[in-house]
Amino acid sequence: MNKPLILVVEDDSAIRNLITTTLETQSYRFHTAQNGNQAISETASQNPDVILLDLGLPDMDGLDIIKKIRTWTNVPILVVSARGEDRDKIEALDAGADDYLVKPFSVEELLARLRVALRRMYFSRTADAEKAVFTNGDLKIDYASGCACLKEQELHLTPIEYKLLVLLAQNAGKVLTHTYILKNVWGGAAETDLASLRVFMATLRKKIETDTTQPKYIQTHVGIGYRMLRQENKL
Fold first, then answer.
1. Which domains are seen in the chain, by residue range?
2. In whole angstroms, what is the distance from residue 230 CA to residue 37 CA?
3. Which pLDDT band holds residue 126 (cuts at 50, 70, 90)?
4. Does the global pTM surpass 0.85?
5. Contact status, residue 116 vs residue 173, Cβ threshold 8 Å
6. How far apart are CA 161 and CA 149, in angstroms?
7. Res 59: pLDDT
8. 159 preceded by cis ω (within 30°)?
């Protein structure tokens, strides 16, 4: 089986060489692009498994690239950028990015984030075979019957808790911003709804987490949103 193909979009030659050398040592295949037009062209022609994307490119902003790519593919996009403010992360994630890594970064963290993105790609591509039932460790969601179980015990969820759980499950491994969740669960993003989101997320966690201080399933990204963590499924 071929190793996954990674598209590296970076105009800084030193960082681009660091990333490609790292990928080469791990036997990943890769293509490179140095501007936005090349990135869009390479994505369309090469169909990469993951895109590593810098936002500060010479011909167009990375946010515009994400939006264009999202019109035809759900390929995982890992932003690697010097822009480290929460606002920048939120804008990228809302535009359709899957994860965000701030420069300077460690090689180990880059590879770890890449593995997460590849797992999400794998689960997304195998979703058709499992789309009736979502399984993540001891958690199981039967979409057809509209019920969720933990360790084979049915969870008694409110309609909002169930919608939150399903939204997170359908995007497992991806950071979902508060705005994205509010739009998809409540249909809006009023500030008053953010408090409701936190309350419902807290009650949902109490029902699915053994220890809410060390969550296995729902990870908080402070000031940004939430992510469902992937667990090993039971055989």
1. 5-125 (3.40.50.2300), 129-228 (1.10.10.10)
2. 34
3. low
4. no
5. yes
6. 13
7. 93
8. no
The pLDDT tens digits for 45-78 are 888 999 999 999 999 999 999 999 998 888 999 9
The 99-102 sheet, strands edge to edge: 29-33, 5-9, 50-53, 77-81, 99-102
Spatial distance between the Cα atoms of 82 and 180, rounded to a whole number of angstroms: 24
Cβ neighbors of 34 (< 8 A, separation 6 or more) are 9, 10, 11, 16, 57, 58
**What is the SS3 string spanning the chain?**
CCCCEEEEECCCHHHHHHHHHHHHHCCCEEEEECCHHHHHHHHHHHCCCEEEECCECCCCEHHHHHHHHCCCCCCCEEEEECCCCHHHHHHHHHHCCCEEEECCCCHHHHHHHHHHHHHHHHHHHCHHHHCCEEEECCEEEECCCCEEEECCEECCCCHHHHHHHHHHHHCCCCCEEHHHHHHHHCCCCCHHHHHHHHHHHHHHHHHHCCCCCCCCCEEEECCCEEEECCCCCCC
| pLDDT for 81 | 93
Residue 32 in tokens: 């490179």
Supply 69's token pair. Answer: 């790519």
Could you give the percent of the chain with pLDDT greater than 90?
63
